[in-house]
Specification:
about 270 residues, alpha/beta
């Protein structure tokens, strides 16, 4: 953990990553940050003791560069960085839909690139980060990326051809759960519960269900069947979910998210 690591374009996810790395043992003096607004950079310095720098300074100084800008800003950032990145730097991209090949095209031949899709539970150290190697990334580069993102949750290596599917499933995944909780809370209010009580009931049920899925090793069908008594309340609710095509709607939603990830990779912002 003695190498210098720079987080470029430090927003919420970048800040969560910084915070997790420090808790995991990285020294603040080995962490560099860049931000679009000077006041944001100073805020990070005050909060974490990290060093604000410009993007070119980060490229010249840090052994590992983590690019956390929005997909539509990636090309501009790469054009700014390219003259300053030696081929022995590791470049990690956290931008949805941006392929390692696109990044490699902007950098010197042989520069190692790793693509990572994480998600917002990084803010509470429960992220799911999916990691793929570019053409020149070594096993050591992948291990280093796992070490960094392991500070804020779990990591999983996948071929880059699966990244768009992972973006749809886990990158955007928390939003689907928030959407479901929102809908269930509204249902609780309709059924006569105060909003705060409905919220507490649903959130704890979600935490308990997720923990059972993680720790029991049981298939979700089996766990659902354990709650579903003949002619009971649960089977009536599930019948309505099926009647309204909820399963098909979820599949279509994830396909739409995957397709948008592919569009981002092709440069479409519309």
């Amino acid at each position: 953990m003695t190498q210098k690591v720079a987080v470029l374009g430090t927003g919420k996810i970048g800040e969560a990553l910084l915070s997790g790395m420090i808790r995991a043992g990285w020294a603040p003096q080995d962490l560099l940050v860049t931000a679009r607004r000077p006041e944001r950079a100073e805020e990070l310095r005050t909060r974490y003791g990290v060093t604000p720098v410009t993007n070119p300074e980060a490229a010249k100084t840090a052994e590992t560069l983590i690019l956390t800008v929005k997909p539509q800003d990636m090309t501009t950032l790469l054009e700014e960085l390219a003259p300053h990145i030696p081929t022995d730097r590791l470049v990690i991209s956290g931008a949805a839909g941006i392929t390692t090949s696109l990044i490699e095209e902007h950098l010197a031949q042989g520069t190692p690139v790793v693509r990572v899709m994480t998600n917002t539970p990084a803010l509470v150290d429960e992220a799911m980060s999916v990691i793929s190697a570019g053409s020149h990334a070594s096993q050591a580069d992948l291990a280093h990326a796992e070490e960094i993102f392991g500070a804020v949750g779990k990591t999983l290596r996948v071929p880059e051809t699966q990244q768009d599917a992972c973006t749809a499933l886990s990158g955007s995944g928390p939003a689907y759960f928030f959407y479901l909780v929102e809908a269930m809370t509204d249902a609780g209010i309709l059924l006569g519960l105060p909003r705060d009580k409905a919220h507490d009931l649903i959130v704890q049920s979600a935490i308990g269900a997720a923990t059972m899925l993680r720790d029991s090793g049981e298939h979700p069908v089996k766990l659902r069947e354990n709650v579903t008594s003949p002619a009971g309340t649960t089977i009536n609710a599930i019948r309505e979910l099926e009647n309204h095509g909820v399963r098909a709607a979820l599949i279509a939603a994830l396909e739409a998210a995957r397709d948008r990830s592919r569009e981002l990779a092709s440069g479409s912002n519309s």
